[in-house]
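A protein record pairs a chain with a discrete description of its three-dimensional fold. The shape at a given residue is found from the number at the same position. Here is what such a record looks like in full:
>
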Amino acid sequence: MPRTLTVFAETFPLHAPFRISRGVKTTAEVVTVTIGQGGMTGRGEGVPYPRYGESIDSAIAAIEAMRGALEQGLGRQDLLQCMPASAARNAIDCALWDLELKLAGSDFASALDLGRPLRPIVTAMTISLDTADNMARAAAALADAPLLKVKVDRSDPATLLAAVRVAAPHPRMIVDPNESWTIDEVRDLQGLMTDLRVDLLEQPLPADADDDLVSFRSAIPIAADESVHVAADLGALPDGYGVVNIKLDKSGGLTAALELAEAARARGLGVMTGCMICSSLSIAPAWAIAANSAFADLDGPLWLAEDRAGGVSGARGVLSPPQPGFWGGI
């Protein structure tokens, strides 16, 4: 049965600037894929990330290069062999999941034994990098959320973290330096992070400095983000990491993300589910990983001034699933 492929870029303005150690975003730039077959249409979204050498144009070009194979019926498993892990592959893979489930008259919650209806999940609410006063104000507004994620860099992170904790004394906390620290700073901040009751330190070092974490025993569990994309990366992961942050844009889709989650757990690693700044079309498939994760960081759509209709909703750090039929079959 013939298929049709469409691919296009979309822009979603944010309601506030989103700052991390690498820069600031005011819009979410995504690539959307639809694949039609037998009167059904599957949708997927990818967020190209400059950190990985991706752009909107390069992602669209990579998807267009697969047009012939996809329209002739290329499946998800074959896709893993034909494309590298990327936002482009993620958009295609998620569109194929959606299409396959619709053609089968099924839904992803049933297919992956997640239970119906899908349950709300706790998501980290991100405190964007800013001045200590501004971060404290943002934290105070989220003081009743169960989990915060605090973005820092090398510019006096101790002051920023202390300001957030004073303003929000109760939530659990993830600290994310986005590869901006050195191993000496990780060591020096252990006592403070323990005192501030930090639950997780996410990718403090550049991925190419991972050797510094060999045999490192941190008082705070350390999560690998940029250091792990797919299951094959786990073999080179230093033992200083205890958690893996799985993002569908890094793994190149839900198919590879499920493989990574299984392989990580088999190695005794904890699983976190993350996202880029995106719409709910990126978050819906990530629910399959987040439903069984120790940490979820899926507040990307909550930064949008306006999300896709029928998408996720959030209140006080609890994320509710999208409406039935939004993504993932019936």
